[in-house]
Every structure is written in C-alpha cells, then in structure tokens.
Fold this protein.
Amino acid sequence: METTISPPRPVPLQPVVLHVNGSDHPLLLEPRRTLLDALRDDLGLTGTKKVCDMGNCGACTVLVDGRAMYSCLLLAVDCAERRVTTIEGLGGPALDPIQEAFVAADAYQCGFCTPGQIMSLRALLDAHPDPSDAQIARAVTGNLCRCGAYRNILRAGRLAAEIEADRRAQQGGQDGNAPGR
Amino acid sequence: MATLRVAKPHDGEGDGEVQVVEGAAMSPWGPDAALAVVGKSHPRLEGPEKVTGRALYAYDVRLPRQLVARVLRSPYPHARVVRVDTSAAAALPGVHAVLSAEDAPEIPWYEDSRLFDRTVRFVGDEVAAVAAESVEVAEDALRLVRVEYEPLPFAATLEDVLRPDAPKLRPDGNLAGEPKTYRRGDPETALRAADVVVEGRYSTASALHNAMEPHGCTAAWEGEHLTLWDSTQSVFTVRQEVAEKLGLPEHRVRVIKQHMGGGFGAKQIAWKHDVIAALLSRRAGRPVQLMLDREAENLAAGNRNPTRQHVRLGARRDGTLTAIQARIEQATGAYQVGGEASNVSGMYQTLYRCPNVATEQVVLYTNTGPAVAFRAPGHVEAAFALEQAMDELARVLGLDPLELRRRNYAAEDQTEGKPYSLPEGLSLCYDRAAEAFGWDPAGSPAADGPKRRGVGFAAHDWAGGSGHPPGYAWVKLNADGTAEVVTGTQDIGTGARTGLAQVAAEELGLPLDRVALHLGDTATGPYSPVSSGSATQASIGPAVRAAAADAVAQLLAAASATMEVAADRLSVRGGRILVDGDLSRAVDVADVTQEIAPHMIRGQGERGPNPEDRAIRTFGAQCVEVEVDTETGEVTLLRVTTAHDCGRIVNPTLVDSQIIGGITQGIGFALTEERVVDGRLGLVLNPNLEEYKVPTVADVPPIEHAHVGVPDTVANPTGAKGIGEPPLIPTAPAIANAVFDAVGVRLRDAPLSRSRLLAALAAQGTDGEVRA
C-alpha cells in the first residue's frame, strides 16, 4: 500500500499588515497561516490560546472589527485592513472591568480558556453595555471551560457590567460610545 | 524544624529496609483555632496574570530559534511497522530533525515496547516525528513520511475483546494482569439468605479528559543540560522518568511548570512527547516545542477506562446490608500506564457497613489509547453503579434512600479495620446536603404533560485527599520583612498556589500580600509529590506550615536579641512582633530582618507521615433535581446541592470553585460524554470537541455548596484534606436516581443519552403511567 506524495509546491509568502491592539505589524506570511498562529508565533501574543484549532472551543476568541471571532478559523492574510484586539489589548495600567470581575468572581481555574471568555464578554459589553443574564450566557456559549467555572463566569459577566456602569457614572457622562476597537 | 533520621535495622527484625523518620510533631490547628488568613476567601494570587494573558503555560514558551514538532500517528488499530521512509520529509526545506523507528534510540516505553515501536497498537500510536520551522512545514513533512504497515487483527472495544474469538493482543492473552479479587465474609450465602436482593448490570463509557491545554512541552538543551517546560502535574516525576529514558543524571534535567491548562489526572507521568521533544531538540540543535493537537490529545494521551459492572446487593427487610457482590470488567487500552490506578472495586468494599463483600476486577487490553487516571479514577465509575443499586434497594424496601444509607453507616475502613480519621465525616455530609437541599423522599409533585421532575441522592467516599508524604518546603525571610515560600509542587489550576501561601502567611504571622510562593521547578524547589489524588494542599500545606514555623522560631530568636526580650514572650501577628501579646510594644518583622540583613532567616519544613492507625478519607453527599422531557429525552439539571468532608476549608472561594467544576464534569459524565469507538474499524469517531460533548455554560444549573468544614486534625497539622476529585463522584448516580424518580426508568448505562432515555421510555410505554 504505497502512495506517492510529492513535496508541496512552495507558495510565495504574502506581505500583510496586521492591525493589532492599535499598532500596525507588517508581516510576510504563508497564505494558509491562521490569525491565531500569526498572533502567537509571529507577534508573540500568546495570551490568545490554541486548544482545538478547529473552531470548536472558543479559546482563541479575539475581536475583529469589534466582533468576537475564533482566530483559528481566520486566515491572517484575510485580516489586513481589519482591527484585531487580543487579550493583551485590554486594560492598561488598570485591569479592564471584565478582567477585574474575573479575578473577583474566581471565574476560572486553570485559566486557559479565560482570555477567550473575556474577549467574548468584551464584545458583548461593547455592543450591549447593560446586558440581560440571557445575553451574558449567550455571549459565552461558544467558549468551553473544562474546569467548569461556568457559574462563576456568568457571575463575572454580570459583575463586569456593573463595574462598567459605575465607571461610566463616575466619568459623569454616558456618551454610549464603545471604545474604539 | 527539619529533621531527618535514617535507620537500617540490623538486629534481624523487620525486612532490612531503610527507614526514614522525619517530621517534627506540630500541634494541629484545631476547630477553635483563631486563624487570620486560613479559612478566608482570597482571590487567586495569579489572577492578574491569567486574566491578562500573561500567565506562562508550556504552550506559550517562545525561545529564540524555537522549532515546532509534530507526530505522525498510526492510522491502524494494530499493525506491524515494516518500513518507515523519512527521506523526503527530512529533505523538505525548513525541516531540521526527523525521528522514527528506523533511527530513534531504542528507549523502552509502555511495558515491553519502545518509544517508536515496530508494532503499533492503537489508532494514534506514535510512528514518526519531525521538527520544523513552522507548524505548516512540520505538517507538510508528516505527509511526506512513507510508512509500510502490515495490519494485524484487533479488538478495539471491551465487548469485542471479551468475545470468545477475540484475537490475542499480547503473547499472554488479553488480560492486563491477574484479576484483582477481594473477599470478606460469605456473600454467596448471605445473598441466598437475604430478605431482598437487587441485581443490575451497569456500564460506563470512556470519558476523555480534554484539558484545555493539550499535553506537551518545550525542550531546550544548554550543553548537556536539558530544560523541559512541560504541562504536567508532577515536575519531579517527569524529571526522574526523562532522565532515566535519556540516560542522564537527574541534575542535568530541569522540569518547569508555572501554569497549566488543566490535567485532571492525565498529566502525572512523562509521556512520549517529553522524550521525543528532547531528542528532536538535540538532533536539531535548537529548542523544540511539541504540543499535541486535539485529536492526538484524545487518542493517545489518556482516557477514563470504560467499565461493565455486575452488582448484587442483599439486605434485610429493615435495610441492613448483608451482602455486596460486584464483578467489574474494564478496558485499559493498548498499554498499562503509570498513574493509572482505577480501583473500581474500592467503593464496594468501603462505602457501606457490610460483613459479606466480594469484588472481582478484570482489566483487559484493547486496541485504543492507554487509559489513565481521570479525576477520582475508579470511584466515579463504581459510584454510578453502586449508588443506583442502593437507590433501587431503598425503593424496593420502601425506605428513604438517605435513611437506607444512614442505616448502613461505616465509621471505619472495613478492608483494614482502621477507624476513619473523621468518622462522622460522611454523616455530616448527609446532614448538610439534605438540609440545604430540602431533601424530601416523597420526591417531586406528580406532573402531567411531557415534562416530569424528580430528585436524586448519592453519596461517596474517596481514598484521595489524604496527601502523599513526603514533601518539602522552604521559607526565606527577606530583609524587608517579606517572605518567599519555595516548594517543588504544582498548581494545576486548583488554586494550590494561593492555598499554600495562606498557610504560610498564617504561620508566619504575615499578611498574605507579604508572602510569595514559588513552585513548579525542579531546579529551585525541594521534592514534592505529584499533584494527583486531591493531594496538593494536604501534602504540601503541612510542609509549608512546618517551614514557616521553623522560620518564625529563628525570627523570634533574632528578635529576642534585638529587642532584648526573652523569646518565649514574643509572638508574631499581622506582620508585627508582639511582646506578651501586646500590640503597643510591637515592632515590625522588617525591623528585625533589616537589622540582621544581609544575614537571612531560612526555614525548612517537611510533610510528616500519615497516621498508621487511622484511615484518612474524604466523603460527600449530593442531591439533585432534574426535569425530564419525555418527548425529547432531554434531561435538564435544575439544581445541585452538595456537601463534602474535605477537612478544614482553607479558602472557601477556591473550594467552591473546585466543587462547581467537579460537578460540571460529573454532569458531562452523566449525560453527554462518551468516546465513541467503531469496533469494526478500530477508530475513535469523536476525538474532538465538536462531537465529544463536554458541558457548556448552558448545561450547568445553580450549584449550592453546603459547607462541612470540620478540620480533620488527625489527618495532618493543617486539618485540610483534598477536594479536587470528590465532587465529581456522586453526580452521575444522583442524576440517574433523579431521572428514575421523575419517569420511573432505570438507566444503567452512562451516559444517560437522549437515545437511551427515549428507548427506555418507549419500552416502558410513556403515554400511560410513567411511574413504575
């Protein structure tokens, strides 16, 4: 049972500029490279996790033009001209309210799915600053957590919405504009 | 104070083995101990790293010139590898090293086989490996490897291997070791004399661990020194095994694990990837990262053994158990692996008081990936059968299932005749769970319509949670009055880093924010055992406490000199050293450590042995309420209430998290998780997270933890036992019992899939009476 397989035909690398977390990153990539591998291997942004690499688990969730997407199902070369936000792009000197809520609610155990969960909730809160419980649950239905922290993830989602509401109130104005992502 | 005495008896007594005695006696923290840090919820110390993506997992290691490795795996369930031609793969630009049976060192692995064996025994068995500059090139290279296989007869399922005409998978047959038998009393006679006998044949599916981070490591050589960043539950086990496999002295192998994306029992040993990565790295002269993909993870890196269990219980009319008999068949896969210890018969022997017990446990090889411990191995499978049988017995006798259990209470380990360290532990669990849930044996109100509700109860014991002595810890007091605790243990996601730091802070009399805890590195920490068997807190907590006590003794001696006060009048609390307990005459710990700097206080501590005259166990009881849709077969969990004896609760939030996590996995085991093997092809049909159904956020109901929290002062000086595994054990039988309560059908095969439930309802005739 012999089969002959020829070596793959070399494909020219393709220039692409990825816009990630507010910075431009010019790269030369194989056209088949996923956004996930480009983030982790070419940009060193390992906060975005690889778990299934086939769109089943949500651990690689990032924001693309503000929407939560599985980065393992996107080709990096297709993401030029799009705004990509990873877990490293959240927060600043202080934690993002969702990150703060995850710590407070113990919404993780091993932490491997956590960046993906947080990004899914970030997309939700950007679009719906005052979400219902059903919306919070719906936002993370595509994010598996094998440690089983789901009950606390739901609590964290609710808490994060409250923290953000408090911060908006403290800032004195509710302009309703989501931060530019 | 660290002490270690070694003796070798020469007087003709004993077996001549060296005896090591260590562990200074420490008085345990009793139930009334006034503790400032232990017992309080504190967020995980590593929280900020985890929520920002900065926590470094094995998969995240990025070294200069690092290569990525991929493994070619057998497409056959059983075959001889006649020839492997890797020349085309090796010639592909970007490929830097290739390994196969043709050129790999003959390193023994899995019983009598080799790292790359000439016989492959399951779909997914390792055949070749490559290291390349990118994952794409590595995968291209695998496609260029040409392998000639000679397929052999196979049996991939427990059913197939038990057929009389099953092929012989090993020269000695298909039994993985002699059957394990246990017997006390005369169960056959007792069954004949019993007023009531219930009998059932149960089965449990193979569950797949599916930790989010796959198995894998990054290997790098500096000269003759190998460093492995491994996703492992036991850095010292990996170091010892890798050193042995590679013929290296242990001091030239360093294993590091700071954070890991789950293990659940499957990451206790060195797996082939550790040695393959090291060999590829040496060959390529560059660091190599070898992480399994999801399919390989589910084929080759462990699974919970499927079982078939034939159970008989005999009882008197008042519910007193007179006989327990269980025959268990389980499939261990293609190889017996270290860390696999699925003692399915154990619970039958110990959970209930019974004078006549016989168990037989038969372990069989199959042409599937090797089974390995999965969170409470053996007990999860056994509880599914035993706890349903108990429920059935209660119904036959017209007794409350909880009352039946109380009437058969075991306060000692009947296999060894030793009292339990906390004999009332299980009874407390019964009380707390039943009270918090509002347990009512009358069950749920009868309902019309397609949806029916029911309640179920189940209990468990577990041999884990007692700790695996020995283990060690060091404490350093810095000049600024902060402390660093160094151990060689692991935080596998449980929160051990935080729980252990709390123990240190308590004993040191420092606020938690003045304590750092270092772990997961064989080069910097003293030996610690594997983080399995719910053991980390119970193993290392006492060692940390002892090291802290040692440091405090030195600190107070130093303070005695600097403060010119007798040491026995000094104590330390809240970061201050008090004279006669008086805060007004206190100085900060830093005042003393500054004074003596750069001289440093170094505490050492060890985990003394477990008591010999008591059996340390963990216990639990769970109540669940379900809703069953008789039209779709869907089981919806409405609520779960659980109580566990895990000794002292060091950090309530972290224990709660372990409990909701364990129950969540239990829901999967009960309802959806099943590795599906096509016996005709020897293929696992769902080695992925699409078709292997782990619970999602939508599947988990509110879970209430009714705390028991009684310190087990006999177990160890912290009074804390483990909680990682127990919550999973009773969930599936509690759900099955609730389903029976709801619709009157007994589902003896896990998972309780919709198809099974619909078939059972159809057999019963759902449109009439649903209650049998």
